[in-house]
Amino acid sequence: MATAVVNYTAAAVSDRGRKRPSNEDAFGFSVESGVFFVCDGMGGAAAGEIASSLAIDEMLRSLGTRHPSNRAAGETPMPQLAEEAVFSTNQAIFSRSQRNQRLSGMGTTLVGLVVEERRVWVVNVGDSRCYRLRARRLEQITQDHSLVEEQVRLGRMTRAEALRSPLKNVITRALGTQNRVTPDIIELEAEPGDLFLLCSDGLTRELSDPLIESMLSLDLPPEELCGRLVNAAKKAGGHDNITCLLVRANQ
């Protein structure tokens, strides 16, 4: 197992949900380049849709061509490349909002994976999430950059209070709202059979982690699992846009 080589397959579904007039979520991936991203945009009018789609395009452009498989040994390490990609993407969104008053204040979350064989880097800004299912056990890999999550981590609010808080939608980090942002970058090692879930909060606000764990444990293709998760979130209320991207490590 320690030397097993893995390759990846992916599938995604995005839905506007039952309450929102449009879908401000976006996703994009390239299995060949080993890059997978989900964004949840915010802003008035169509600004959220613009921010999230711009973020996806910029991240895929930046990392798709500079993935480790395309680089010579000794070049810039992937965590640094990922951070630079986030910086340039943030600047692209921020600059566009500065040039167009109608887009002022737009921004987006970003969560993604960059993979090279067994090495996996998780990139996160905001409150979209990355989970890993291993041996039918679900683990949340990212920490939400949100006001209530920070209060929970500081012991000033319980998890139950956070779920009921009117401030639960307030995020403390986003792409494009400030001139500079710092992403969390987490390095992991994949094992054959691992299933990574990248999702917007439209999924996690409606479905509990134990329910997500039980649904992902079903022996089904990733595209069918995505559809089931999104449909379950819609049936549970569908108050927000819902996006689910699954990445499976195969032997």
Uncertain parts: none
Rounded radius of gyration (Å)? 17 Å
Which fold name fills CATH's third level, the topology? Phosphatase 2c, domain 1
Number of helical runs? 7
The first-level CATH class name: Alpha Beta
* Secondary-structure element series: EEEHHEEEEEHHEEHHHE
Overall pLDDT level? 92
What does this structure look like?
The protein is α+β, with helices and mostly antiparallel strands and 251 residues long. The chain has one domain (7-250): PPM-type phosphatase domain (Phosphatase 2c, domain 1), CATH 3.60.40.10. It is 31% helix and 27% strand. The chain contains 7 helices and 11 strands. The strands form 2 sheets. Strands 2, 3, 4, 5, 6 and 9 form a 6-stranded antiparallel β-sheet that branches. A 5-stranded antiparallel β-sheet has the order 1-11-10-7-8. The N and C termini lie close together (10 Å). The model has no long low-confidence stretch (mean pLDDT 92).
Give a brief description.
The protein has 251 residues and is α+β, with helices and mostly antiparallel strands.
Q: Which helices and strands appear, and what pairs or packs with what?
A:
Blueprint (H helix, E strand, L loop, with lengths): L6 E9 L9 E6 L4 E8 L4 H18 L13 H22 L7 E2 L1 E7 L2 E7 L3 E6 L2 E4 L6 H7 L5 H6 L19 E6 L5 E5 L1 H4 L4 H8 L5 H14 L6 E9 L1
Antiparallel strand pairs: 1-11, 2-3, 3-4, 3-5, 5-6, 6-9, 7-8, 7-10, 10-11
Helix pairs in contact: 1-2
